[in-house]
Amino acid sequence: MYYKRIIDSYLSEWASRKMHKPILLRGARQVGKSTAVRHLGEQFKYYVEINLEKQPGYKTLFRKDLQVKRIVPQMAAMCGIPIVPGKTLLFIDEIQDCQEAIMALRFFKEDMPDLHVIAAGSLLEFVLDDITTFGVGRVHSMYMFPMTFDEFLCANGEDLLMEARNQASAISPLPESLHDKLVQLVRTFMLVGGMPESVAKWVETNDYLQCQEIQDDILTGYEADFPKYKKKVDPQLLSATMKSAAVQAGKKFVYSRVQGDYKTAEVKKALEMLIKAGILIPVTHTNANGLPLGDGRDDGTRKILLLDTGLMLRLLNMSLGDITAITTQILTASAADLVNKGPVAEMLAGLELLHYLSPNLHHELFYWMRQAKNATAEVDYVLPHDMQVLPFEVKAGVQGGMKSMWDFMRDKELTQGVRCSLENFGHFDYVDSKAGNTVRHVTIIPLYAVSRLR
After folding, report:
1. What is the pLDDT of residues 66-97, one digit of tens each?
2. Which of 53, 263, 287, 432 is least surrounded, with the fewest CB atoms within 10 Å of its CB?
3. Which residues are CB-neighbours of 129 under 8 A, at least 6 positions away?
4. For the whole prediction, is pTM greater than 0.70?
């Protein structure tokens, strides 16, 4: 069964355009890229899927030259399906196995502009670094991630609940019964995560243990890929760095905390490889003095997120040996304890912020921390919103626990902020006596409604 994805509407819109570039679909392994393309293929009269890893014979078509008007008829003859511009969706999967095929994408745009072509592949980012003639301006990249909470709700048949949530607001919050149901579902989502195979298993069985088996298999698959990484990095170091990122989630990443006798430069290289593979996601410090946030970035100060909360918890289990207490806390702890103790809620909020952005661009996450000696002030995320800098704090609820946000808003002369929690929708004003009684307005967005921010 196919579960709707946010990217579906973007792919459908691309397919309907009279003028369209070939798409390079980018993202970590097993986030659902191939499945989404096959779903799109149902809109076409003909669908052709070529897997260059499983069907290496197709590589020879690209080795002679890059004349796509020669390649396409030969490809059609080999697969026995017509490849007709305007009627066929051509999907070239695992394209990283043939650099010539990647280079050929630009010529589909130039020589067969009416043909719909999508390419995808595992570890694609490493190969693109080596291709100087990659079709800038002639190939369009889209980025794909694990499933969002909204996609998880739809997969579980909770469309009406999501619709009710979307009607709620700060001045008209949800009835407590619906709020409580969404809180319980977001707890489940933390454990199941958004990897499509894990979500499908949850929908089928409602069995956390079976989901964990799938998550363990996915992580094993990631580790099996480590020897394939372009630049030779010790696979054991890559594994240790990935597990350390789970342990350090929610805190500034410290290279020396990676287990093993590794130099900082070695760990940094491994970290960059995992980021390039899409397994880890950096949250970079910025001074947040204005937009764009990247102008004030400090790449030496970063927090690191795993691409999925379910996978993070499995990595913690590998690192710590037993996370029964963490699992129990996620399922049963009070809202305040769940948000304030442990990094899972903060990590989920960051992933949700990223995953609802347009897949047509590569986006970054930023946070702010006071860098003075012995300073502790930190704002979990800072966002560009309505041409302003918007602080976004993941907090349990009480105003007194938001000193960092007040300090930040005062320093940057901001009047709008967001508190993300397991509270219902709401808002409040804070009169800042330290800044001449300036009124600062904070909107409360539940953790299950981060998509509403956009």
Report:
1. 999 999 999 999 999 999 999 999 999 999 99
2. 263
3. 230
4. yes
